[in-house]
Backbone:
């Protein structure tokens, strides 16, 4: 167990998380190409294991799919072009 009574080693947690969310150049995402109103309008992709998310951060093995950088880029561009 990495977290015991609220204490943990952040470097060890990062190493263990990386084993679950990275495969070569592919990264695990739980939401791809989400349009948002922030900053006047942006598109986002949410990766598993990130500090912004609750369940995908705490249980990255249970959610999401692996995508290559090219797939993420293409999906984000397509979403952004729909909003223009």
Residues:
């Amino acid at each position: 167990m990495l977290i015991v009574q609220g204490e943990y080693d952040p470097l060890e947690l990062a190493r263990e998380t990386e084993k679950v969310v990275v495969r070569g150049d592919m990264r695990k995402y739980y939401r791809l190409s989400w349009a948002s109103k922030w900053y006047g309008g942006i598109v986002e992709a949410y990766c598993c294991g990130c500090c912004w998310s609750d369940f995908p951060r705490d249980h990255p093995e249970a959610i999401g799919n692996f995508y290559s950088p090219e797939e993420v880029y293409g999906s984000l561009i397509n979403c952004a072009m729909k909003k223009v």
User: Anything to note?
Assistant: The mean pLDDT is 88. Residues 3-83 form one domain. Helices lie at 10-21, 55-58, 69-83. The chain has one domain: 3-83.
